[in-house]
Amino acid sequence: MEEALAKIRPHTTSNLAHQKAPANLLQALESTFQEKRTDRTPTAYFAALITTLDGSIQKKETSLGDGDVLPAELYLLALVAPFVPPPVIQTNLNTLLSLTAPLFPALMAHAPPLRSQLTLYNAVFRALDKSQLDVSAVRQSFASILQLCLDPRPKVRKKAADIVKDVLSFPPSPLIRHPYAQRVAEWAHIALQQASSGALPKSKSSGKGSDTSAAETAIHLLAFLRPVLPNLPLDAIPPITTTLLTLPRLGNPYLSQAAYSILSNLFTASTTTDTASAIEQIPAVLNAVLESPPAKADNSTSPSWIRVLGDAMFAYHVADASACVAELNKVWKTVWSYFETKHPQTRKAVAESLALLTRCITSSIVKDSISDGEAGKSPLRSIISQMTKALDSLAFASAMPELLSVISALVSNLGFRMDPTKSTTATEALLMPLVSKIADLRVQKGFEHKEAADAVLSTAMRVVGPAVLLAAIPLNLEPSDRQAGKEPRAFLLPMLNQPHPSLLGHFVSYFVPMSERMFNLQQKADSEGRQSEAKVWNVLVAQIWTGFAGYCHAPSDIKTALTPAFSQLLSQLLYGQPDLRPPVLRGLKALIESNKIIASQVDIDMGESSRSDNAITPEQASKNLTFLKTQVESWFAVFFNVFGSVDRDNRGMVGDVISVWAELAEKQDIAKAYRKVVDLFRQSLQQSDNGNTTAMTQDLLILLLSFLDEQDIAALFSTCLAQEVLCHKDNGVQKRGYKILAKLLEKGKVEEDALQTFQRLDELSVGLAPAAKKDRFILLSLLILRVPSESLHIIPSLIPEAVLGTKEPSEKARLAAFELIVAMGQKMSQGGVVKRSMVDGMDEDDAEASINEYMTMVAGGLAGASPHMISATVTAVSRLVFEFRESIDAQMQTEIFTTLLVFLSSANREIIKSTLGYIKLAIHTLPIELLRPHLKELVPALLAWSHDHKNHFKAKVRHIFERMIRRFGWNDVYQAAGEDQAAKVLVNIKKRKERAKRKRAREDDDQEEATKGNVPTGDAFEDVLYGSESELDDSDEDEQVSRPAAGLKRKGVEQGVRLRVDDDEPMDLLQGVASRLTSRYAQTNRRRKPGQDAGHFKTDTDTGKIVINEDEESDIEVSSRKAAKDVAGSAYRESMTSVDGFTRGPNGRIKFNKDTKKRRRENEDEDGDVEMADGAATATKKNKRPMEPKLGHEFKAKKAGGDVKKGGVDPYAYMSLSQAAKKKGRNRTGISGKR
């Protein structure tokens, strides 16, 4: 509420009456609060406004013009009411209704105060209980609001509709549905009946005919009904649905589209909620919709009508699957008939609807189709046959992507197993010929929809698995297949990397031998110098092993497939094949994770809906995990060796796999592995020159920390808290040492004395590397939490290190330092004792710990000897002021503010930069009452830096002034400025702000949405200190609107399908037509093929090789050599004479040449002679004004050079003096020769 009121207060000086009146009223109320010493609570504002409104009505001050009191009172009431406690509104309900309800008739003609009244009633209705909702005045007011839902004014209509939606969405406790829901349903039903009969009243604001106005009002009614429908009673849905079906008969396409869209939403909601009454009506709705199909050329209504059929059928399937089956074939044929349209949106709707219909296919339909045979005429067989024929049909050429998406949905939805004991799916039994046909289309040369075909094949790979799919669609990648003329299908390999039901044994028996053969072919090609062929085989091997992870998703044959021989092969690949290491690691990780997920699930019913996704049961997954536990020790050895052999940047993936397998391992396996790593760690510490091994062992220890017992953790803590680790010459060893200590503290299993640990860390800070500071700050932040409340004297010794850490170059180190400062503040704010006698250099008595005492400690750095320390202290104080703004008392805030205000007069820019950051934060955070007395000192101090451009001080100061003007008002800030010259800066800021406001007002809504805004960083302190830069920064610059390229395809324009001419080969339009068609869109967006520029070269007729004549030089080579020669010859002259050149003075300072007309003219003359110049660029330059002919040009001799003068020759020696005297203009020459 305070934020909303703060936006109103500055408008007391506004020139707009409707802004000024609420601001003046608010100012008067708050001055009354101040006189009576009343807290500014929402209840106080509400009571004062009710009293003021009562007085205005008693005085009959009920005029509703701009600047009048009544609209201002309603506006403030609407703003305050949402924050008023509900009991207050319930108590004052009668008073509120008696004052505001009679205003409805008068407000109808004035939209702004009417919207304020509606907002007020929104808060009132949501605050009432069930008994108060039955009050006649309340019901009558709600009826008035319902009528406003059809108001011709858009803002009023939307506000009323939002109120009804909000009221119904939040029924009074303990009711589930609002008492007004039935009344809203009845009103909506009556209004819909009037709309369908054309009896709705004509809109007063429209000058159109009555039919058009009635249709528009009906559209408004449907817009209101869409969000309200889920909150209406269930028994009210059928009559509304019946009436909705009559609206398309009015012939208005937009009305029909809206009605069908609402029906779709209703059916979609019925699949997730219990709306049985709506489901009972589905057969009647289906028949009614099917009986009124739109014309296929009706592009506006067809998509919505088609979506209704799909949504209704799916809702019918959820409610009664057996009854839905009877309607499936009829609805499918109806929707399919719209597939031949040329309208993209209609085709898209058909694809979505058919995809929903494929989800209505039950196991009974599948069983009938399987028993019927391939030549049968069951409904599912007919659908499959229809799709197969459509792939070759010319009529469906433009709908090929949508058709393939429907096939993909069918393949996915038939992925259930008919017999739980067998792995055969319905897709495998029925759709493999169709999938094979799509694969054949995919390899044809002219087929353009390869991405959509790949989606179908990828879905088939996921549903039936590679073992089934590759049996029907072989890869044909090996030389024997190529010699037989078979088309290769390498595009299937990337599809292996997804979960599928095939067994891991298939990969071992099929792909492992294939990869070995391909590897041998690669080695042979390498040895024979065929590098391109070797690269092809290398890529194929990599793609095969990328699919290894897909086989590792909970296979049921782990015990038989993961043999010692196969495990040895995987180990060899991890050791010797860096390119194949990532896919192998992904597979081994998926092997554990997938089985753990399934084992943790509750046993599911393996009935009709059993999918091929979970090919094993939780019991089988548990058995797999038990088997894998026996393999942990050997795999740990492999993983640790691989971890040590790779460089630091590539250890992340190996570490992830180690963590996953460690979660599965037994405690003895973890302990055994830990002891080996610790022994290696201690040995490497003794070898002073071996930092890499030490860092590697530390990384392994970090991975194993979560699985260690308390004894091992204590030993590791003492090992890392040593000089050999924390003062190691390798930065990485130090970082990891601090990181291990921090992670051990996070686990909470370390029983170490915090004070002794602090003392030890203080001794080891001498050899601290800058790279380890971040982890040291994190460790200190965790240790602070363990300090006893009677031992807080340790904090003053940590403050200097933490404060200086806020100036670290590393952003992560700075953030960690800030967190340490805040953690110490939180510890001090919890209370305790600071024994000053134990602090170095202090003999004072003990002090009680508090946030004020901590602020005093931190502020001691302001007396530092270096500007760096002072600046860091100001930054730390700023963070603490922001973090503990609610805890620090007003006196301490004032002392901090006045102290830091002095630093604005410093001459050091580092201190000024930090101080400006604090001032900006203070103006944003601190109370106005605390800052207002200091404006006379603050404003002149800021104005002193308002003309300094270095370090962006001018922009920072300007932004601070903008915030000050928003918080304190223009008058207070301007009066504090003092001098006229200083006040000019504020006047300029005000003008820039007004100019920016006018510019934004001129912009369109689209442009406003496109303007860039400041994205919050997620850290509130960072957003306040560095975010929300000045809104006027770019106000003086004209925005350049980029023009869209003229050649781009306009949205919604259909690009037609064409036949591709392929030399003189005859074309069969009845078979394989999909590969012979092309579209304009595909031609313009076709990717550039490698080597397509080879056609520009000559070729040898015998061998077909490209012939390049080395004696001939290309145009590029000639131009480049000429340009290089020109540059080499004129570089020195250009540096001395051109606009971009410079010279050096006697003291070595650079002085750039002045940008004069003469130099620009000389540059243009020289640019015209360079052959490398871009002709297109010069042609687009702005045409210059033609040069005016010089005086006496008609006497110029064609061959003579003229009189010799300084700077050239003058061909105008002879001319009449009278002619010269008549010459007019700025540069005229007089008779005497003077200018």
From TrEMBL:
Residues 25-272 form the RRP12 N-terminal HEAT domain. It is found in: Nucleus. Keywords: Nucleus. InterPro entries: ARM-like (IPR011989), ARM-type_fold (IPR016024), HEAT_RRP12 (IPR012978), HEAT_RRP12_N (IPR057860), RRP12 (IPR052087). Residues 1030-1039 have a biased composition (Acidic residues). Residues 1185-1208 have a biased composition (Basic and acidic residues). One of its GO terms (cellular component) is nucleus. Its main location: nucleus. SUPFAM superfamilies: ARM repeat. Residues 342-645 form the RRP12 HEAT domain. Residues 996-1052, 1081-1208 are annotated as: Disordered. Belongs to the RRP12 family. This is Armadillo-type protein. The lineage of its organism: Eukaryota, Fungi, Dikarya, Basidiomycota, Agaricomycotina.
